Every structure is written in C-alpha cells, then in structure tokens.
Amino acid sequence: MAKAVPRNGVLSPVPARAPWAESAIMAAVFFLLLYAAFSPVLSNPLVDKIHALQAATFLSMAFLIGSLSRFWPKLFDPLKPYRQTLGFLGAVSAVAHVFMVYVPLGWNPSGWVLVSGGFVFVLFLAMALTSNRAAVEKLGYPLWKRFHTLGYVALFLLAVHFVLAETKKGVFSLNPLETAVLALVVITLLARAAAFLAGHPMRQSYDAHFGSKRASIKKR
Ligand code: HEM
C-alpha cells in the first residue's frame, strides 16, 4: 500500500506508476495487427499508414479515457495512468509517420493536408513532452491545463487531416480499418463534448488527469 507523503500538512496522493511496459507491448501488438491486416503487400506507403493509424488510435485513447472516467470513474480511473504513456507513444508514431512521408517516401504534401498535419504534429509533440509533473510545476497547473485542453483542437484537426489526406482526385475512400480509426477520433471528440454538456467539473490537479494511488498512513 502506497505511503502517503504529507506536504505542508496536506496529504498528497502518491502518483500512480506510469504503465510504460504495458503500453509498449500494446504498441507492438497493435503494430503487428495492422501489419497482418495490410500484409502481404507491405511497402513503405503502408508502413507510413500503419504509423499514422497508430498515432491517431493511441492519441484518441489517451483523451477518451479522460472523458469516460468523468462518467464511469470506477471503471476508467484505473486506466488514467495510460493517458501519459499512450499519449507519448501516439506522438512517437506521429513522428514516424511524418518521417516516412518526407524521407523514405520523399512525398511533398502541400495545402491543407500539410497545414492540418503540421498543426497536429506540433501540438501533440508539445503535449507529449509536457505530460509530466515537472512541466506542470514549471508552467503552473492553470497554464498547463489550458495548453493541454488544446489537445481537442489538435484532435479535430487530425480528423480534418485524415479526411483530406484520404481524398484522392476528389474521391474520399477508406478501408474498414481506417474507417474504424477515424470513427474512434470522432467518438473521442463527441465524448468530450458530452462530458462538457453534462457539466462535469474541470479537473483541479495533475493527478486528476493521470491518476494517483489511494494513500494510507502506516499506524506508528
Ligand atoms: C507535417 C505533418 C504531416 C504531414 C505532412 C502528413 C502527411 C500525410 C499524408 C501525405 C497522408 C496520406 C498518406 C496515404 O494516403 O498514404 C497522411 C495521412 C494520414 N495522416 Fe498525416 N501528416 C502529418 C502529420 C500527421 C500527424 C501528426 C498525425 C497523427 C497524429 C497524422 C495522421 C494521419 C492519418 C491518420 C492519416 C490517414 C492514414 C490512412 O488513411 O491510412 N498525420 N498524412
């Protein structure tokens, strides 16, 4: 049982362990699933798609856990520590996607595909790099919170980027897997809107976002 750390006389929650190992296994399994779904014709454009779809999936899951835990805290609070790890792995997949687009593929996307992708890239990378306690202490919780709420703007732009990038010669078409991932992005945005409309209170601390353990004081 976690030992409470009294700070200024206030019992502060002990931060939950970030499930890096579990999330890395999830990322590997998800990559292999996408690989299996696309094989046997695996090629650079398809590896790029796998990274792009993995980025969209993990980033959506990181946000969706937050909204669902407002409605069903008992069910989803235990998953809150995954918000940090899935968010980070999603950003890593986005870096891999953008790298693939410019280096092995040598594409030169322009227009709104580039603008929307660029905004999403910068926002999610900055959020992944500030999803830690040190960043909250540096920025102060109110500013950190306002910045991380921008994540939903990035998620909306991701949906726009997805649709624009998959509209080729005026025809928008997705295979079932891509449809499922785009649906997850949209569901995540709708879940946040529902939490807002339901009037769920704003979170007041870093631990409320990423989870903490019930603390107990050992009887001396
Ligand atoms: C400068 C930044 C970016 C550029 C230039 C870019 C470029 C592209 C291009 C050219 C495609 C079409 C790929 C294809 O059809 O094979 C695409 C698709 C996609 N991109 Fe990006 N992208 C960027 C950032 C991002 C970021 C940050 C994310 C996610 C967080 C993302 C997620 C996606 C998704 C989900 C697709 C659709 C993949 C599919 O349908 O299978 N992109 N992007």
What does this structure look like?
The protein has 220 residues and is mainly alpha-helical. It contains 10 helices and 6 strands; from the N terminus they run βββααααααααββααβ. The chain has helices spanning 20-38, 44-71, 73-76, 81-102, 111-129, 133-139, 141-149, 151-165, 176-197, 206-210; strands at 5-7, 10-12, 14-15, 167-168, 171-172, 212-213. A two-stranded antiparallel ribbon has the order 1-2. The longest helix is centred in the N-terminal third of the chain and has 28 residues, at 44-71. It is globular, with a radius of gyration of 19 Å. The site of protoporphyrin IX containing FE has 27 residues, from helix 2, helix 4, helix 5 and helix 8.
Short description:
A hairpin with a 2-residue loop joins strand 4 and strand 5. This protein is 68% helix and 6% strand.
**Helical coverage, percent range:** 55-70%
The largest β sheet comes out as:
2 strands, antiparallel
- Which molecules are bound besides the chains? protoporphyrin IX containing FE
Gross morphology is globular
- How would you classify the helix and strand content by structural class? mainly alpha
Topology:
Elements: E1 5-7, E2 10-12, E3 14-15, H1 20-38, H2 44-71, H3 73-76, H4 81-102, H5 111-129, H6 133-139, H7 141-149, H8 151-165, E4 167-168, E5 171-172, H9 176-197, H10 206-210, E6 212-213
Antiparallel strand pairs: 1-2, 3-6, 4-5
The chain binds protoporphyrin IX containing FE (HEM).
List the keywords:
two-stranded antiparallel sheet; single chain; binds protoporphyrin IX containing FE; globular; two-stranded antiparallel ribbon; disordered C terminus; mainly alpha; 220 residues; 6 strands
